[in-house]
Structures are given as C-alpha cells and as structure tokens.
Amino acid sequence: MTKTTTAIGLMSGTSMDGIDAALIETDGENHVIPRGFLTISYEPDFVARLRDAAAHALECHRPGPDALIDAVAAELTGLHAIAVHRLLAATGTDRADVAIIGFHGHTVAHRPDRGWTWQIGDGALMQTATRIPVAFDFRSADVAAGGQGAPLAPGYHRARSAGVGRPLGVLNLGGVGNLTWFSGDDWGSFDTGPANALIDDWVARHGTARYDKDGAIAAGGTVQESVLTAMLDLPWFDLAPPKSLDRADFTTQAARGLGLADGAATLTAFTAETIRLALGHVPPIGRLLVTGGGRHNPTLMAMIADRTGVPTEAVEAVGWNGDALEAEAFAWLAVRTAAGKPISWPETTGVPAAMTGGRLA
Ligand SMILES: Nc1ncnc2c1ncn2[C@@H]1O[C@H](COP(=O)(O)OP(=O)(O)OP(=O)(O)O)[C@@H](O)[C@H]1O
Ligand SMILES: CC(=O)N[C@H]1[C@@H]2OC[C@@H](O2)[C@@H](O)[C@@H]1O[C@H](C)C(=O)O
Questions:
Q1: Of 244, 307, 328, 257, which Cα lies nearest the Cα of 37?
Q2: What 3-state class would DSSP assign to 212?
Q3: What local confidence, expressed as pLDDT, does residue 1 receive?
Q4: Which intervals of the chain form a coiled coil (predicted)?
C-alpha cells in the first residue's frame, strides 16, 4: 500500500480574489481525506498590482526576470506563506507533519501556442518561510513538451470521482471555466471559455460590486441574442480539445452599450452557451457536477442546465467542497510530483505521453 501523507495546496485563481489553501491526507492516488480549508482575500491594492503584473507579463516575450513582476511575486509568496501558517493553526497541524506544499502561484500569462506559461510565486522563498518542502511551477514542463499546461485539476477530479457513476462531467466555473469528462473508461479535459471573468469585469466596470452576487443583476436583465450570437461566432469554440485559455483572451467588448442588467444577463448566457458548445466536443454526459465560485450563482446554474439540457448540480451533491477543490488538487499534485508520478496526460493537456511536472524546493 502506498504511504498516506499530509499535504497543503495553495491556489490563486484567475478571479484574482485571493488565496485558497487546503490541507489533505492522500496517497497521491484515489485515497483523499480533506482536513481543512481557508481562503484569504487579497487587499484591493494588491489586486491592482497583480493586475498590472498580468498586463505587463502579456507584453513580455516569455517568463524571465522583471523588476515589477518579481516584486509582486515576492509579495504574493509572503501572503501565501501567511495562509500556510493560518491553515496550520486552524487545523491544529504541526508543520513537521506536512510532507509538502503544492504552491501553484498566480498565472500572469498563459501562451501555450508560443511555448510558454508563467506562474509567479517563489518556491524557494516559500520553503524558507514555512520550512516545508515545496512543489511549484506545475505547468511549464507540460507546455515545453507541447501540452496546453492546463487544466491540471482533472487528475484530481478522476481520483475523487472514482466511486461516482459515469458518464459524468466535472465543470469548474472559476474566472475561466474547464471541464473534465468521464465516459466508461475514457476521459478528457479542456478549458471551456470564460466562466465568471467577463461577468466580474462587466459588473466591476459599472459599479462598486466585484461580482454579480447570486446572479441578481443578470436575473433582472434580458439576454440580447444578437450580441450573444456575435460573441459565440469564434473559431476557438470549434477547436477540438485539448485547449486552454489566458484570462485576457476574451473581453466584454461585444456587450458595450448595453445596460448593466442586460449586459450581465447576456454575458451570463454566454458562459452557459460556452458550456453547451464544450459538451459538443465530448461523449454524452449524464450529469454535470459544478465546482468553483460560479456554482454560487443560481442564474448561471439555471442557464447552464437550461441551455445544455444536462442535470447540473454543485459538487456538494457528492460530498466535495467546491470552494476547496482546486487548492486540494494542488496538494494532491504536489504529492505526485514528490513521488515522481504523472500530473498530466495526453487526454487532459494534450502532452504526447503521461508526464511528471512541477519543481521541488
Ligand atoms: N454568491 C455568488 N454569486 C455569484 N457569483 C459568485 C458568488 N460567489 C462567487 N462567485 C463568483 O466566483 C468567482 C470566484 O470563483 P473561484 O474562486 O472559483 O475563481 P478562481 O479560483 O479564481 O478561478 P480559476 O478556476 O479560473 O482559477 C467570483 O469572482 C465570482 O464571479
Ligand atoms: C493557465 C492557468 O492558470 N489556467 C487555469 C485557469 O483557471 C481555470 C482554468 O484556467 C484552468 O485551465 C486552470 O486552472 C485550473 C485550476 C487547472 O489547472 O485545473
């Protein structure tokens, strides 16, 4: 039997809202016991610096030393180290009992088509700050090998869903959306399009809110079908998986001129339509289990169920925590990295063969 270890996962997602930190016990295979989770919101001024770093990173030709980005990376690492200490305290865990931290860092730019992806976060500094071994830089090796470098959570979705009936889809509605599908013994994954990113951008631009809480704004608007049709008229949606996205690949441009509520309704319907189109690339799925912040938006959830015709429910229906799942995934991936096991597969990122990834500090 493989040894069970305790691991911490740290995720900073494309919504740029903060840090998700999870503690799990796992053998790096199908045995997983979640032990604790917390989230720390970023201060607005740090979010502004992170946005600047992401905008700047897209102008760079590839990852490398950069004064602005390195400063944000160091600050981000410090904040994530604080999250580790808080999680240890909250769960009553001794630092020495944690075998590894999976430190995803924050994606400032993702350009697999150009052969690079860039996650900021200093693994060595994290190791020094916590005195716990750290796995980081999970995506670069995959991209260097010709893969998409994303999504990486699908292996964890497969491990957790071993006892859940097939066919099945696990849909993550973060800033960007991604789908992992299972049909018989077949499986695969890819990014579906923007999930909350455009809705967040639209609402933030029009007022003081950071997102459309409970989908209330969209619920009061009317979907503008002509705008929706124009937004969906992109070759990207016809591309066969695997495929992945940078948060900046889509904008709210097509909705300009609409009122706040109609724009929110239209962008929410756009996300739902991207899921419908994604399902067109995979075998029939009997059930969609939804993780990520978007599952808290009932307007979006209803539109997805309505436009796809697939029963759609939050992952809590099978006992998972949809706020913690991605952070848990990076704890699980770190255990696999330390053990020299694959973290991506031809089915999930398009790499030529199952491969290891991540660096150790
Ligand atoms: N009550 C709610 N009502 C509507 N939307 C919500 C609610 N709670 C969270 N969200 C949405 O979920 C988003 C955060 O989702 P999540 O934390 O899964 O994103 P992330 O982890 O940053 O993204 P990614 O998976 O792309 O890395 C928020 O920005 C918001 O749009
Ligand atoms: C490049 C990058 O950071 N991609 C993220 C992003 O956020 C959601 C989607 O796009 C997914 O592909 C990925 O994150 C999840 C955690 C993943 O790798 O599974």
A1: 328
A2: coil
A3: 54
A4: none
Instruction: Output the residue whose Cα is nearest ligand 2's atom 15.
Output: 151
- CA 75, 249, 267, 318 dihedral sign is negative
Q: Same fold for the domain at 5-152+323-360 and the one at 164-318?
A: yes
Distance between start and end Cα atoms, the chain = 27
Q: What are the pLDDT digits (tens) for 39-53? A: 999 999 999 999 999
Q: Check whether 20 is labelled as a binding-site residue.
A: yes
- pLDDT tens-digit map of 158-211: 999 999 999 999 999 999 999 999 999 999 999 999 999 999 999 999 987 999
Nearest CA to ligand 2 atom 8: 176
Strand order in the sheet with 176-183: 186-194, 176-183, 168-173, 288-291, 312-314
CATH class of 164-318: alpha beta
So what's the pLDDT on residue 76? 98
CB 159 within 8 A of CB 29: yes
The domain segmentation of the chain, as residue ranges, is 5-152+323-360, 164-318
Q: What is the mean pLDDT of the chain?
A: 97
Whole-number Å distance, alpha carbon 3 to ligand 1 midpoint, is 34
Closest-lying ligand to the alpha carbon of 119? 2
pLDDT at residue 208, as a whole number: 76
Q: Encode pLDDT of 231-281 as tens digits.
A: 999 999 999 999 999 999 999 999 999 999 999 999 999 999 999 999 999
| Rounded-to-integer distance, Cα 29 and Cα 332, Å | 8
Q: Whose CA is nearest to atom 23 of ligand 1?
A: 174
15 CB within 6 A, ligand 1: yes
Residue type for 15, please?
S
Task: Tell the CATH topology of 5-152+323-360.
Answer: Nucleotidyltransferase; domain 5 (3.30.420)
Strands 116-120, 134-136: pairing is unpaired
